[in-house]
């Protein structure tokens, strides 16, 4: 039965494909198990889950509604982690994942022209179109002069790892300030590069920043995202999301993780080493590494689509791109066994890659 007044869905509402989806695994039902999923950019060396039994006096984070004190503790940890002014808590909004923020931020603005620096994460353009905005793609900032529009940049970019330096972003935002423009930054993978973050500029510049907890900390199932924006915009987003939108366990886990400076520093170093090791493996087997971050690598091969299929048949999932059939994205193997499995698969495949 149709519901009166229900807005119809269009083909654009389906959204792009993603890595880490068990539906992708179904494409290779006969592949050996367990699958080795390298199709995401989630840290495989994730933060150890803490014991929450002491999370709250008398009760625990599982049995009560999310508590205001827990939100405050998490925001205080975020202020220190992001290295932003101590009075910045009113610029931060907590959400159940950065994806919901990508979908909700377009509704903070009246319909207007939106420029998306592309190619990039595929959810941005559909989200703005669905909210009624006129979306165009731009492939370079060198010739960008549409400073009265909204400009969406993923930094570092997904999937190629392109980086726009903070000084360049600040100049763009400063030019937008006098022309009613807004710079929207998706910093989902910026935790490995703290010097590029823009969260500290949101009071002075027309900037909205989206951050993801799950990727760097390797706990994507916790579902936590963070928005940083001018206090009025932050309050607007908080109202849209409503109360208790982040679970009590998520608040407690993230507060501890963001405050663990020793783990954060060690993990950043470890990820750099792991990415270099993966580069060595990929190059040894004929891949040209053209980009990425320390959470994923972006590589080229003339037969990339065939490589992805043959890796999948061996139970190894990597990210392919319909619009860039010569590119693949590889997440980091979690251990020596995973690395050896990937290397062994490449040896088998490359011996017959042209057949």
Topology:
Layout: H1 22-25, E1 36-37, H2 68-82, E2 92-95, H3 98-104, E3 113-117, H4 124-130, E4 134-138, E5 150-154, H5 166-177, E6 182-186, E7 207-212, H6 214-217, E8 225-228, H7 231-241, H8 248-259, H9 261-284, E9 288-293, E10 296-300, H10 304-313, E11 316-317, E12 319-320, E13 327-331, H11 336-350
Parallel strand pairs: 1-11, 3-4, 3-5, 5-6, 6-7
Antiparallel strand pairs: 2-8, 7-8, 9-10, 10-13, 12-13
Helix pairs in contact: 2-8
Helix content: 25-40%
Q: Uncertain runs with pLDDT below 50, 5 residues or more?
A: none
The number of distinct β-strands equals 13
Question: Biggest sheet, in brief?
Answer: 7 strands, mixed
Q: Can you tell me the CATH class of the largest domain?
A: Alpha Beta
Total tally of structural domains: 2
CA-CA gap between termini: 52 Å
Q: Which sequence of strands runs across the widest sheet?
A: 2-8-7-6-5-3-4
Strand content: 15-25%
Please state the overall shape, judged from the principal axes of the Cα atoms: globular
Q: Helical element count?
A: 11
The mean pLDDT is 93
CATH superfamily of the largest domain: Type I PLP-dependent aspartate aminotransferase-like (Major domain)
CATH topology of the largest domain: Aspartate Aminotransferase, domain 2
What descriptors fit this protein?
355 residues; alpha/beta; Aspartate Aminotransferase, domain 1; Aspartate Aminotransferase, domain 2; 2 domains; seven-stranded mixed beta sheet; four-stranded antiparallel beta sheet; 11 helices; EC 4.1.1.81; threonine-phosphate decarboxylase; PyrdxlP-dep_Trfase; PyrdxlP-dep_Trfase_small; threonine-phosphate decarboxylase activity
């Amino acid at each position: 039965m149709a519901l009166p007044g229900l807005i119809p869905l269009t083909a654009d509402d389906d959204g792009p494909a993603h890595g880490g989806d068990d539906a992708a695994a179904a494409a290779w039902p006969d592949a050996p198990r367990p699958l080795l999923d390298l199709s995401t950019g989630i840290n495989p060396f994730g933060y150890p889950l803490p014991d929450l039994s002491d999370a709250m006096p008398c009760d625990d984070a599982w049995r009560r509604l999310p508590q205001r004190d827990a939100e405050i503790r998490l925001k205080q940890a975020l202020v220190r982690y992001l290295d932003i002014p101590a009075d910045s808590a009113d610029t931060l909004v907590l959400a159940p994942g950065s994806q919901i923020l990508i979908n909700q931020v377009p509704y903070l603005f009246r319909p207007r022209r939106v420029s998306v620096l592309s190619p990039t994460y595929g959810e941005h353009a559909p989200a703005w179109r669905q909210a009624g905005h006129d979306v165009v793609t731009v492939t370079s900032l060198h010739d960008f002069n549409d400073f009265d529009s909204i400009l969406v940049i993923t930094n570092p970019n997904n999937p190629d790892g392109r980086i726009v330096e903070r000084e360049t972003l600040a100049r763009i935002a400063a030019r937008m300030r006098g022309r009613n423009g807004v710079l929207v930054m998706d910093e989902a993978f910026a935790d490995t590069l703290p010097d590029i973050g823009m969260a500290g500029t949101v009071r002075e510049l027309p900037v909205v920043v989206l951050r993801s907890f799950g990727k760097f900390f390797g706990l994507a199932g916790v579902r936590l995202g963070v928005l940083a924006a001018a206090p009025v915009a932050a309050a607007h987003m908080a109202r849209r999301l409503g109360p208790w939108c982040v679970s009590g366990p998520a608040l407690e886990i993230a507060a501890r993780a963001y405050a663990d400076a020793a783990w954060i520093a060690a993990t950043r170093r470890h990820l750099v080493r792991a990415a270099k090791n993966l580069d060595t493996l990929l190059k040894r087997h004929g891949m040209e590494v053209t980009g990425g971050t320390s959470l994923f690598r972006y590589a080229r091969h003339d037969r990339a689509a065939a490589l992805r299929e043959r890796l999948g048949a061996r139970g190894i999932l990597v990210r392919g791109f319909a619009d860039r059939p010569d590119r693949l994205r590889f997440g980091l193997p979690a251990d020596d066994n995973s690395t050896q499995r990937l290397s062994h698969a490449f040896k088998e495949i490359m011996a017959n890659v042209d057949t």
